[in-house]
């Protein structure tokens, strides 16, 4: 992983320098959370945690980077003696990657020296969690629309090399079955797939010759692109000739791909003609600017499609250019004690929740029913209350007039765990990409379908209890200031 110590906004370095000049560098705690779900979705799939930790564990300023900062003639030169070869001394707690999360919940808590926590804000928000969570969530929506066998085809349309790799990885976490990105397949052990391009067909004297030459090389995995000239009158007819001959010779595993035209009409016609020729086993793959809306429609009219190739609209997260993740201070150490901090805003949705917090997920009939955000020091009391199945009242984290009395529930699960401490990744936080992907599928089975609807999903309850008192207290104190 490249060293990315300079991947930060200039004002972070300006503040770091100012704190250093004033000899201010207390311990502090920051948290990341999402303000809203993307695509008006009912949930967010958390991704990018492992990528971030692997970047942060080796982050330091090298000699040439120090020289560049010195050349700006803006900073106190003494700060560079401290920064040179300094590795971060931070503690990270988070919800597990691959879990379903919701707005206002702390998904990542980082504790360390204030100067260090400022330095890494850009890395936390840009490189990993916001983008990977966005793409994983988009992919889950596409799967929910009915893309049963989903191939991510976005390499050539993604935003640069890092965007392509991150998108392929996040799409696999979110439920994609394959990628066309060979480098992503190599790096992350994702199954790779692909058919042929129109250029293959066009490079031969005839479409039929192109198909035959391809089939000779891959007789047991023949996937033919049939829309280069005329899907029904040329491409399909030539493909059928090839498939019938290969089938008589004992070969199998055939498919056709359609990349243009009326996908409803063409898929139905292609299926009908294939069946009339006894080629029931031939799969139909479609691509061409697909998204969840198109896929949901094609499934609603029972278009006979076996595999979906989705590229541009997946890896660029059509409909939502970015995710709403923010990174805010929640407490700062004064006289050896952490003092809770809270942002008061003219916009209610931009206010923050103070102090270090935990999240507990409540279940009934093996289904998620709500999440409770609580103060870290309350954990044992919360655990005792839930074990005793006590009734209690929960409040909306941002709107105090919205509340609900909780009377019945069955089980609960604490979601936040330490993942990085003493410059090492915690053993219990090491997960393979396949394991993270399974975590997503497990959580999706535990949430009611009304929260997974693509249109107007039900809003999942994220709530607070005693945290409400601290929030009200700090709101009052800040207004007096």
Provide a descriptive summary of the structure in words.
The protein is α/β, with parallel strands linked by helices. The chain folds into two domains: 286 residues, nicotinate phosphoribosyltransferase; 95 residues, Aldolase class I (TIM Barrel). It has a seven-stranded antiparallel sheet with strand order 13-12-1-5-3-19-20. It has a six-stranded parallel sheet with strand order 7-6-11-10-9-8. Helix 7 packs across helix 16 and helix 10 runs parallel beside helix 11. The longest helix is centred in the N-terminal third of the chain and has 24 residues. The relative contact order is 0.14.
> Please, how many helices?
18
Q: From the helix content, strand content and strand pairing, which structural class follows?
A: alpha/beta
Q: Domain count, please report it.
A: 2
| Rg over alpha carbons | 27 Å
Number of E-state strands: 21
Write out the strand line-up for the largest beta sheet, numbering strands in chain order.
13-12-1-5-3-19-20
Unreliable residue runs = none
Average per-residue pLDDT, rounded, comes to: 94
Entry summary:
With 481 residues, the protein is an alpha/beta fold.
Detail the topology: elements first, then pairings.
Blueprint: H1 10-21, E1 27-34, E2 44-45, H2 49-56, H3 63-71, H4 78-83, E3 91-95, E4 100-101, E5 108-113, H5 114-119, H6 121-144, E6 150-152, H7 160-174, E7 178-179, H8 182-188, H9 198-202, H10 207-217, E8 222-225, H11 231-248, E9 254-258, H12 263-276, E10 283-286, H13 292-300, E11 307-310, H14 312-315, E12 325-334, E13 337-340, E14 357-364, E15 367-375, H15 379-387, E16 392-395, E17 403-406, E18 411-414, E19 416-421, E20 424-425, H16 433-445, H17 449-452, E21 461-464, H18 467-480
Parallel strand pairs: 6-7, 6-11, 8-9, 9-10, 10-11, 15-21
Antiparallel strand pairs: 1-5, 1-12, 2-4, 3-5, 3-19, 12-13, 14-15, 14-18, 16-17, 19-20
Helix pairs in contact: 2-6, 6-7, 6-13, 7-16, 10-11, 11-12
